[in-house]
Amino acid sequence: MTSRKNTKHITIDDVTAREEELRLAADILLSGGLVVFPTETVYGLGGNGLNADAAKSIYAAKGRPSDNPLIIHVAAPEDAERYAYTNPLYYKLAEAFMPGPLTVILPKKENIPSSVTGGLDSVAVRCPAHPVAHRLIELAGIPVAAPSANLSGKPSPTCAADVAFDLDGRVDMILDGGECEIGLESTIVKIEDDGVILLRPGGITYDALCMISEKVTVADAVTHQLAENERPLSPGMKYRHYAPTAPLVLLSGSDERTLAFLQAEQARTSCAILCYDEEATSLSQKNLIPIGKKADLETQAKRLFHALRMADNTSAEIIYAHLPPMEGLGLALYNRMIRAAAHTVKYV
Ligand code: TXA
Ligand code: MG
After folding, report:
1. For residue 99, is the peptide bond before it cis, meaning its omega torsion is within 30 degrees of 0?
2. SS3 at position 102
């Protein structure tokens, strides 16, 4: 880490009214600096995707291993053409889901430095829907390389305060666009032959992909722990992301048994609980973090990462949460939580 930067914090409540600030942010990107910006998934730590040094600054600011490639963000789906070799299935996916929370892995063109792609010959392309992200990329006129704007190993930030906690002094500017709509990182797919491989589930669900592509395969690493010697299709999947300091244990069992277990644990030990809203009145309020109604996966997705940060801020010796269902948006929650829990599930 080089010297501490004087990070500018700017709130963008209205893209049109804040055009001047967004131009300033675009100029920072063009001169090799780092700007954190909101997207509909999570906040991104942006740099110039055509500049190898900017990519190195991103890795340094995050404390991230440089073999874990970055996503490049474009203002329009067809801009992918400049940086990657597209195909008809890419355009079918783009028509259905872009701008939005979908990232597509394509063979890369020469102009994208290998430091951006962690040495791979493919590049991840995403066209975000958030108006601040969109206007910033458009004004900069470059692909904006951006991982999630957290320190490596921490949950992705879904509000500017969580960004500032991790990155104040490490980036040139933080654009505050409020709370992220989805709260989990984008769905990542790789196009292969006549179908897609789902590498990371997110706001675009498996079922939604099946409406567009005849063949959708879910990569093993989405739901299972890889063996020591296995190479994941996406380098990021080998890291134990999103890990709180206290061990996280996921509970599976009937509503009654789970609640009884949690009540007993609260009496026995100092634990933090990511509970369903319905349970909140039946549990002690100490270190209790409601993450939404049991059936409301959207709210749970939106609150999960901040809830993990809150749980980490308590002095609890253990954190409990529910094992999510694997259907719909549940698959994305399951993927993030099972990894944060290092695959620890307790059947009660
Ligand atoms: O929603 C999102 O995708 C956010 C926002 C900021 O756009 N970004 C994000 O980036 O989550 P990051 O760097 O935290 O996660 C990107 C993931 C990593 O797991 C990385 O390994 C994978 O994408 N990835 C990037 N390029 C790849 C490639 N060429 N082949 C396979 N996986 C790739
Ligand atoms: Mg990340």
Report:
1. yes
2. strand
> Residue written as tokens 């061990």?
247
Residues in the chain: 348
244 CB near ligand 1 (under 6 Å): no
- Residues near 64 by beta carbon (within 8 Å), at least 6 away in sequence: 58, 147, 152
Q: Is the CB of 183 under 6 A from ligand 1?
A: no
Residue-wise pLDDT for 131-190, tens only, equals 999 999 999 999 999 999 999 989 999 999 999 999 999 999 999 999 999 999 999 999
Is residue 150 within 6 Å of ligand 1 at its C-beta? no
Does residue 158 have its Cβ closer than 6 Å to ligand 1?
no
CA distance 321 to 332: 15
Residue written as tokens 């190898």? 52
Could you write out the DSSP letters of every residue in 232-267? PSSGGGGS--S--SSPEEEEES-HHHHHHHHHHHHH
Closest CA to 48 of 134, 143, 150: 143
Report d(CA 226, CA 238) in Å as an integer: 8
339 lines ligand 1 (CB under 6 A): no
What residues pair up with 105 in beta bridges, in sequence order? 124, 190
- Ligand 1 atom nearest the C-alpha of 186 is 1
Buried residues in 205-215 as b, exposed as e (16+ CB within 10 A): bbeebeebbee
Residue nearest to atom 15 of ligand 1 (CA): 147
Distance 278 CA to ligand 2 centre (A): 31
CA dihedral 61, 65, 66, 71 (to 10 degrees): -70
- From the CA of 38, how far away is ligand 1's center (Å)? 16
State pTM to two decimals. Answer: 0.96
